[in-house]
Specification:
about 550 residues, Endonuclease, Chain A, 3 domains, two-stranded parallel sheet, 21 helices, PLD-like_dom
Length: about 550
């Protein structure tokens, strides 16, 4: 049952928000179908193996220099060589256009690493931008986790058929069929099935980068017609970019990164593959554009305007990049058990920063399941009178109901400890937050950030849950900047105030959700905005969800 629940979560996590409410029953039925397929596979003891990787050349990042226009702008913008420059990108449109502009202006290299690139308007636009860069002579390295590549072999093979492009798949499945057959044939190796690369990174010319919480799909950039995520990215320049490049190289050259051709042997000639790519990647939506004088909620102009001007309006300070080892989650050799701790760098670093907090820790995590170790950490913080706040998804906003069941086990204990707990309200966010901050048709929270003492902030791909702790590899930045930290805190508090329910306990110990409404707050005694059948179904299935797999 653990394997089934774990796979169910993997298969559901990035389901479009347009289906969260209307067809959530499909998610549960898929769990049942997975159970059936897994049982059949277990009886047949079917097992497929990965092919040899063949020739697998080692390559490294190209460091930024004055030899490219992006490198010259980065050097001209930096007040000191050992500082890094940052800019928050809460706007989906700004975050997408930043990536597209970097791809358009790159002259030497593009290093791109993602958990998911969906075959939709946004994903196709991104892959075409990479292809166009390669046609200009730019070296393109695309590293993609294999979990959500089902049905994309033609698209990816067509991209890889272009000169200057290399595509690698992280921890690929041995079969190239649909999602169900992939899972079924991987049953004998559940640990490998659960080990995914959750990193998100985009580096241009070794000079500028984008990282944060967003995958590449319409719903992460406010382009989905029905529902979109609230998310957060960072535009990065300066001293920390070479660190990010080395972390990319660590994954690119790892034994888990398979050249696409070794997993998907080409059946067509390279010209035929390129022609196929042109056809299947044909634009299905207009490009991202900005109205003149457009600014985001923080007052920034689009990145392309600053690049045109030759200087970047960034916050400059010190930072460290952190990423898990690619082999995270694998059993270490006998006598090297400490390697499992070293491989979990991001979570360990986050915990260390939390332990050092003296006044406040604010956690923003769409999937928040603290577990025993997390609760012990929070208890220690509260015993020292450190204020702790949490912003996460409500049952109505989450795309992962089973994960929500893991989180709700801790709600009462968190409130009893004096933790400020807020849950996103999709209705309130869509009604009051539409526009600069939340975008249109808000579905759920996907931002990942942690504020320490209003002096330092972590922004990256890590959720505060067991899956990020044990199975997914993650990446993030620890930034020592009070100014940037206060911007993150401001965005979080804005979401709490304008788009969330505040949780509290009554004198009798009952749970209440308080929805601010001006003069009169609205009080709920049940999960607000969640459908009745979902609440009942979760009551039935929650006890069956093993926390370690959430």
């Amino acid at each position: 049952m653990q394997a089934v629940v774990g796979v169910s979560r993997l298969g559901q996590r990035l389901t479009s928000r347009s289906r969260w409410q209307e067809a959530r029953a499909f998610d549960w039925s898929r769990t049942c179908r997975l159970l059936f397929v897994f049982c059949a596979a277990a009886l047949a003891t079917a097992c497929a193996s990965l092919p040899s990787q063949g020739e697998r050349p080692v390559s490294v990042a190209i460091e930024g220099s004055s030899g490219t226009s992006l490198g010259r702008i980065a050097l001209a913008s930096a007040p000191e060589r050992d500082l890094s420059g940052f800019r928050l990108m809460p706007s989906g449109a700004f975050a997408l256009s930043a990536r597209m502009e970097l791809a358009r202006r790159a002259e030497k290299s593009l290093d791109v690493q993602y958990f998911l690139i969906r075959h939709d308007a946004t994903g196709k636009a991104m892959l075409r931008a990479l292809r166009d860069a390669a046609l200009r002579g730019v070296r393109v390295r695309l590293l993609l986790d294999d979990l959500y590549t089902s049905g994309q072999d033609e698209l990816l093979s067509g991209l890889a058929a272009h000169e200057n492009v290399e595509v690698r798949l992280f921890n690929p499945f041995p079969t190239r069929g649909g999602l169900l057959s992939r899972f079924a044939l991987s049953l004998p190796n559940v640990e490998r099935l659960n080990h995914r690369m959750h990193n998100k990174l985009f580096i241009a010319d070794g000079a500028m980068a984008v990282t944060g919480g967003r995958n590449v799909a319409d719903e992460y950039f406010s382009r989905h017609p029905l529902a979109n995520f609230i998310d957060l990215d960072l535009f990065v320049s300066g001293a920390v970019v070479p660190e990010l490049g080395r972390l990319f190289d660590l994954y690119w050259n790892s034994a888990l990164a398979y050249p696409l051709g070794s997993v998907v042997p080409p059946r067509l000639t390279r010209p035929e593959l390129r022609a196929g790519f042109e056809e299947v990647s044909r634009p299905s939506a207009p490009p991202v554009t900005h109205e003149p004088d457009t600014r985001d909620v923080l007052g920034y102009r689009p990145i392309e305007e600053e690049l045109d001007a030759g200087t970047l309006d960034l916050i400059w300070d010190y930072a460290e990049a952190s990423a898990d080892m690619p082999s995270k989650g694998e059993a270490p050799p006998p006598g090297l058990e400490e390697a499992s701790i070293a491989s979990n760098r991001v979570r360990v670093s986050v915990v260390e920063h939390m332990r050092e907090a003296k006044s406040e820790v604010m956690l923003v995590s769409p999937y928040f399941v603290p577990g025993r170790s997390g609760m012990d950490l929070i208890k220690d913080l509260r015993s020292r009178e450190v204020k702790v706040g949490v912003l996460t998804n409500s049952l109505a906003s989450t795309d992962q109901p089973l994960v929500h069941s893991g989180y709700r086990r801790y709600r009462r204990s968190l409130l009893e400890l004096g933790v400020d707990v807020y849950e996103l309200s999709p209705i309130k966010a869509g009604r009051e937050g539409r526009g600069l901050l939340f975008g249109k048709s808000v579905g759920g929270l996907h931002s990942k950030a942690i504020v320490f003492d209003n002096l330092e902030v972590f922004i990256g791909s890590m959720n505060f849950d067991p899956r990020s702790d044990h199975y997914n590899t993650e990446i993030g930045l620890f930034i020592h900047s009070p100014r940037l930290t206060l911007q993150v805190a401001r965005l979080a508090r804005l979401a709490q105030r304008q788009a969330s329910h505040r949780l509290q306990l009554t004198a009798g110990g009952a749970l209440e959700w308080i929805t601010p409404g001006g003069a009169d707050d609205e009080v709920h005694t049940k999960e607000p905005e969640a459908k009745l059948w979902m609440r009942y179904l979760l009551e039935l299935l929650a006890p069956l969800a093993p926390e370690g797999m959430l």
